[in-house]
Please model this.
Amino acid sequence: MAPRSDKLLRVLILGGTADANRLAAAVAAEPHIDTVLSFAGRTETPKLPPIPSRIGGFGGAAGLMDYLRAERIDRVVDATHPFAAQMSRNAVEACVATGVPLLALERAPWQPRSGDRWIEVDDLPAAAIALGGAPRRVFLGIGRQNLDLFADYQQHSYLVRLVDPPRGPLPLSQVEVVVARGPFDRTADRALLAAHRTEIVVAKNAGGDAAVAKIEAARDLGLPVVMVRRPSIPPRRTVPSVADVMDWLVHDSTPTERGV
Ligand code: NAP
Model:
């Protein structure tokens, strides 16, 4: 399939997710699309895609505007994690300012199902409070960046799952670390939670398949889940699947729509 122009369509994908990697594989097969996949640089060994990539922040919305202009980007796809709100806000601002069309690849949030015992909260500080005052055995499936938010709640014992081994001490006194990269498996997560005698799980409502195993495992074991709702992001066009993004790139776009 070719877009409606012989010119290359220059696309910036904001990545850091399994969906972004799947999209990268799909665009790699399209000779008319010239793509750069951007990583923040949080993961030490990111899974590198079969397309050009760059690593590191742009320098806020203004830096992203400069990048879009300098690299003559025709389209931006925001395929970041639903909790990467700052990057997504910057993308909206920069794309509005430069006139570069933006599409977000956004998975639907998980919904509670029969047997789920969710305590929904608005953010991670509220999740830490929701654990309560009494000591509990907590599975923290939230990544490395926000562990310090739990540092004031040292009465709990934490099991933390990280993509990379920690470089230094974590801000939690009673903590065990499991180093593993998704996608995760329901049976294995059930065994992990049971082996650590986990009493409560903290999760961000990421949606999608890669990280849902811990939610299913908690349901299987009858454990409560403190589920953090997604942060708000300014209105933007969103689609739920890689196929929808490809449709937009291949059939619904031309390089002349840049508008700068
Ligand atoms: P964030 O808070 O929204 O972003 C903070 C800053 O990091 C941004 O302002 C930007 O710096 C830079 N940044 C973020 N994503 C970038 C990207 N794809 N390419 C280039 N720069 C990027 O993001 P975050 O929550 O720290 O997440 C960082 C990365 O990890 C994202 O790629 C995200 O998809 C991935 N991730 C996040 C989570 C999560 O729970 N937050 C989970 C899994 C994966 P400048 O302002 O300098 O441009």
Summary: The longest strand covers residues 33-39.
